[in-house]
Amino acid sequence: MTITASSMILSALAKIGEKAIGGSLSTAEQTHYLAMLNAMVESWGLDRLLGYSILKESKALTSGTDTYTMGPGGSFSTTRPNKIVKAFLRDSNSADSQLGVLDFSQYDDIILKATTSTYPRYLFNDCAYAAGLATITLYPVPSAAYTLFIDSWKQLQHFDTINDALVLPPGYQRAIEFNFAIEAAPGLTS
């Protein structure tokens, strides 16, 4: 059986007696419950214990460039990360150099942000959501080209339609259905 957003929503609603097993959703219900499901799953992406992977990705960098946007359509075109947990640079000799990941306070404490160096030592992710993009900044500004590797938490799958097929690790279907039953229970919806 294919797992879809619809099948999980209907299962959750059956658990709380809102729909009969094998029932269907009206168009208005599909829109309403899909929005609720996406909101719940998006909130799970903020908690490392609920995310099932840390993804390693890479991007070829340009010498002299210290900022890159991250997200769909950004200079680092990928799913915008919730959090970068580790980063390193790889040079043309395949030598790796670890980068410290700075928080807002640490980055703000840097006085001369335009300083250049052969090897940057730090990476800062502003965690912004301007047009779905975050900005990462390397410090000092790299004076050579490298490949940046990051390990980051990613959001769980977003469902564009009620019939989207899902790829979930074992146990996630049950967790989503039971938690969505709580979200959709009468008197608890917003």
Give a short overview.
With 190 residues, the chain is of the alpha+beta class.
The rounded distance between the terminal residues' Cα atoms is: 31 Å
If strands are numbered along the chain, what order do they take across the biggest sheet? 1-9-3-4-6-7-2
The oligomeric status of these chains comes to single chain
Sheet of most strands? 7 strands, mixed
The average pLDDT is 86
Count of alpha/pi helices = 4
General form: elongated
- Uncertain regions spanning at least 5 consecutive residues: none
Q: Which class of secondary structure composition applies to the elements? A: alpha+beta
Rg for CA atoms:
21 Å
The overall strand count is 9
Structure, explained:
By secondary structure, the chain is α+β, with helices and mostly antiparallel strands. Helix content is 25%, strand content 25%. The chain is built from four helices and nine strands. The protein has a seven-stranded mixed sheet. It has a two-stranded parallel ribbon with strand order 5-8. Strand 6 and strand 7 (134-139) form a beta hairpin.
